[in-house]
Amino acid sequence: MILSFFKWTSVFMGIHFFMFKFLITKDLVAPFVYNYHSVNLLFIITSFITISVLYLLSKKNNEYLGFIYLGFSTFKTILCYALLHEVLGAEGDLHQFEKFNIILLFFFFMSIEVYQTSKVLNKISYKSKD
Hints:
5 helices, elongated
């Protein structure tokens, strides 16, 4: 499960890096408030912690795992907004591309978390039927 997380993260980060290195002009990246590597690292760390905790708790056959995931995702949303509010709360066209980049990363990592959580929940539900 953790290996799958790193596989998908590596593929996405490779594509993301390629886009920023070769396809996106420096004019779009110049007004960025946050370094996009730092934003990537923030999402990688928070998603890794979420998936790791869910995986460790699944070993105990915890029936509240879905609620724990909802708590983690709510906390992650609040944390990301608190750390990135300078861009996310900004008005005007200057930070539009950076907002789009942050939202894209947020949804990508959230989808990985949802996929991994559903795999864990299905595994627990399958074990309980036996």
